[in-house]
């Protein structure tokens, strides 16, 4: 399963500047863990994280369903481009 594309498709619907949205998969020390980073502009990252992290937790929960199907743990981090 392409976790990067799935997360990008979810996040793309929530941001204003779709051209600055980027999702990358980073290497992990644990073979059962997939680390994904979401990069976007500062305002869009604020929208993706939401108040008290509610939106970020919802995205993580939604993505964890597909991870459980393949017995993988997903670690999703949100970062903004320096502006």
- Beta strands, count: 3
Strands in their spatial order, largest beta sheet: 1-2-3
What is the H/E string?
A: HEEHHE
CA(first)-CA(last) distance = 33 Å
The parts where pLDDT drops under 50 for at least 5 residues are none
Largest sheet: 3 strands, mixed
Mean pLDDT: 93
- CATH homology group: K homology (KH) domain
Task: Describe the overall structure.
The protein is of the alpha+beta class and 83 residues long. The protein has one domain: 2-Layer Sandwich (GMP Synthetase, Chain A, domain 3), CATH 3.30.300. It has three helices and three strands. A hairpin with a 6-residue loop joins β1 and β2.
Question: What are the salient characteristics of this protein?
Answer:
single chain; 83 residues; alpha+beta; GMP Synthetase, Chain A, domain 3; 3-stranded mixed sheet; 3 strands
Sequence-ordered SSE layout with sheet pairings:
Blueprint: H1 3-12, E1 22-26, E2 33-40, H2 42-49, H3 54-69, E3 73-80
Parallel strand pairs: 2-3
Antiparallel strand pairs: 1-2
Protein name: RNA-binding protein
Keywords: RNA-binding
InterPro entries: KH_sf_prok-type (IPR009019)
Summarize the structure.
With 83 residues, the chain is an alpha+beta fold.
